[in-house]
Design a protein that fits this description.
287 residues, alpha+beta, 6 helices, single chain, 11 strands
Length: 287
């Protein structure tokens, strides 16, 4: 990629596509309010209708008519991250023709790095929303009872059921170490199961009683010092909303160097708009 053939809109779209492919949590939430983000500090107003009162009807009696009440929340675009890379003309002359420019490769790498930071931010938001609520199952010991890990994920599903969370779009996210423990449980990877065979051959995480299981290295730190095994976060796509945008992507010649430069600015924000739709549990895995 050279400055002369750099088209900002095309590269911004390419960068956004790469961002979305790299997200774990970003693909487990909704983007209903993304809209048009122009800068850090923008906010999106989210309006929801409160529950309508249902009352008994008595013949020949007046009914009670109530106003439609709504609630407004703000999705604040309060996060901003940038990247800036340069390619010296001497280095440009040395790269193999016919392949991607080192600058193009650097932009692809920047997309992954930006998505990684945003992913951790979003998982942290979901975790904070579930913390210290009735959907926080506390800390469960799994070093004395391996099946307690599986059982706890079932318990997370039950908490979502109790909170009237829709079945569609549910998920649970675990760390790679917890995923490894699950793979050792017959109940998760049972013999003769087609899904189990797929799990063993290509690393597909699978499901627990219909709850899709994902793994991520970006789960937040535990709040309980005894929770040496990390945590699991569950929810559904309607619980949290996320919005992001590449608000600036520029290529230029550096003023005091013989070099091309590309820089970009990524802004985003997230809000948990249905706190009853998320749940968590931490694990004590002390040997």
């Amino acid at each position: 990629m050279a400055v002369t053939n750099f088209i900002p809109d095309l590269w911004s779209n390419k960068l956004l596509v790469a961002l979305r492919k790299a997200h774990v949590a970003g693909n487990l939430v909704n983007r209903d309010y993304e809209g048009e983000i122009k800068r850090q500090g923008d906010s999106v107003k989210i309006t929801s209708i409160n529950d309508v009162t249902i009352g008994p009807y008595t013949p020949h009696s007046d009914i009670t008519v109530e106003d439609i009440d709504d609630a407004t929340r703000s999705l604040l675009i309060d996060q901003a991250r940038y990247f800036a890379v340069e390619l010296d003309d001497v280095e440009k002359a040395q790269y193999v023709k016919g392949g991607d420019s080192p600058l193009a490769q650097a932009v692809d790498n920047a997309a992954y790095q930006l998505a990684d930071v945003a992913d951790a931010f979003l998982l942290d938001k979901i975790n904070d929303a579930a913390e210290a609520t009735s959907n926080d199952l506390g800390t469960v010991a799994i070093h004395t009872d391996a099946d307690a890990l599986y059982d706890s994920i079932v318990d997370l599903m039950v908490r979502l059921d109790v909170s009237n969370v829709p079945q569609m779009g549910r998920f649970v996210v675990v760390s790679p170490s917890l995923h490894g423990r699950l793979l050792k449980l017959d109940r998760f990877v049972s013999t003769g199961d087609a899904v189990a065979a797929s799990t063993r051959t290509n690393g597909f995480i699978g499901e627990i009683v219909g709850l899709p299981v994902y793994k991520s290295n970006n789960l937040p730190a535990v709040t309980d010092a005894a929770a040496t095994g990390g945590l699991a976060i569950a929810g559904y796509r309607g619980a949290a909303t996320f919005a992001e945008q590449i608000v600036s992507l520029e290529a230029d010649r550096m003023e005091k160097r013989f070099a091309d430069m590309v820089k970009g600015l990524h802004v985003y924000g997230a809000a948990v708009i249905r706190t009853t739709g998320v749940a968590k549990v931490e694990f004590d895995a002390t040997a």
